[in-house]
UniProtKB/TrEMBL annotation:
Signal peptide: none annotated. Pathway: Amino-acid degradation; L-valine degradation. Belongs to the HIBADH-related family. 3-hydroxyisobutyrate dehydrogenase subfamily. It holds the Pfam family NAD_binding_11. Keywords: Branched-chain amino acid catabolism, NAD, Oxidoreductase. Its EC number is 1.1.1.31. Residues 157-284 form the 3-hydroxyisobutyrate dehydrogenase-like NAD-binding domain. It catalyses: 3-hydroxy-2-methylpropanoate + NAD(+) = 2-methyl-3-oxopropanoate + NADH + H(+). GO terms for molecular function: 3-hydroxyisobutyrate dehydrogenase activity; NAD binding; NADP binding. This is 3-hydroxyisobutyrate dehydrogenase. GO terms for cellular component: mitochondrion. Gene3D superfamilies: N-(1-d-carboxylethyl)-l-norvaline Dehydrogenase, domain 2, NAD(P)-binding Rossmann-like Domain. InterPro entries: 6-PGluconate_DH-like_C_sf (IPR008927), 6PGD_dom2 (IPR013328), 6PGDH_NADP-bd (IPR006115), HIBADH-like_NADP-bd (IPR029154), HIBADH-related (IPR015815), NAD(P)-bd_dom_sf (IPR036291).
């Protein structure tokens, strides 16, 4: 993300980066050429104190709150734009937005992304933006330097709502695809034939067409490399948990959520599946891999 931002930003711009893994940021600085200047910061405060635009990407709600609380009261008030690309729950995002407003530091918008590591490197990410309409022209040019599509979902918090609704559906579809493929193969169907039928029929979905859990069906899918890479089981479990939290707050019933969460927890705890792409659910339920 930073490389694409740096390459497309003006040479007069300066991008200050901070990560707890300093070696990663130093490597980044050594690799960039042309475009904006890149500097390594010693802390979040050091990175944001002179910034007009701040982009954050963090693992959990607690990390987002910790980072923002570490600098909001220590920097001079300014009409900044804070773009948080983390996948967290909408309530936590709205809470931090309130902190930014109270501190008179500008505006906080949520813009979770889809596209993974490959999309981040290629600059083809999709951003789901939650922001007041008048802020969109200020935010879009920044996101366009890192992604291909920016979808304005509505007011602050709605980008996260859209992302979590999508990932809830993805979590369920992934399990159902693994079960359907296992079922058909045990009935004697060829995996590629079964997948072809599903993908021209009403069962078609991203896990069946792009991320099929059976080795050899989709050559580029993680199943072909022992489920390495891709979207990790732990990340799917995290997003499912966040979707359940947000659904509970909204009063929305998720009839399949609890069972799905229990399954992903069990998959993550299995040493044959832990740390792998979430399509490894197929292995966990006993799917044939040869």
């Amino acid at each position: 993300m930073v490389k694409n931002l740096q390459k497309k930003a003006a040479p007069t711009d300066t991008i200050r980066v901070f990560d707890i893994n300093k070696a990663v940021t130093e490597k980044l600085v050594s690799e960039v050429q042309g475009g904006a200047k890149v500097e390594v910061s010693e802390s979040p405060l050091d990175a944001v104190k002179d910034a007009d635009t701040v982009i954050t990407v963090l693992p959990e709600p607690v990390h987002v709150k910790k980072v923002y609380s570490s600098f909001l009261d220590s920097i001079p008030p300014r009409d900044r734009i804070f773009i948080d690309c983390s996948t967290i729950d909408p309530s936590s995002s709205q809470e931090v937005a309130g902190w930014v407003t109270k501190a008179k530091q500008g505006h906080f918008v949520d813009s979770p992304m889809s596209g993974g590591v490959v999309g981040a490197a290629a600059g083809t990410l999709t951003f789901m933006l939650g922001a007041d309409a008048d802020l969109v022209p200020r935010v879009e040019p920044v996101l366009e330097k890192m992604g291909r599509r920016i979808l304005h979902c509505g007011k602050q918090g709605t980008g996260l709502s859209a992302k979590l609704a999508n990932n809830y559906l993805l979590a369920i579809n992934n399990i159902a695809t693994a079960e359907a493929m296992n079922l058909g193969i045990r009935w004697g169907l060829d995996p590629k034939t079964l997948a072809e039928i599903i993908n021209v029929s009403t069962g078609k979905c991203w896990p069946s067409e792009v991320n099929n859990p059976v080795k050899g069906v989709v050559e580029t899918a993680p199943a072909g490399r022992d489920y390495a890479g891709g979207f990790g089981v732990s990340l799917m479990k995290k997003d499912l948990k966040l979707a359940m939290l947000a659904a509970d707050e909204a009063g929305a019933r998720l009839e399949l959520a609890t069972k799905a969460r229990e399954l992903y927890e069990a998959v993550e705890a299995d040493e044959k599946c832990a740390g792998r792409d979430f399509s490894v659910v197929y292995r966990y339920i006993g799917g044939k891999e040869e």
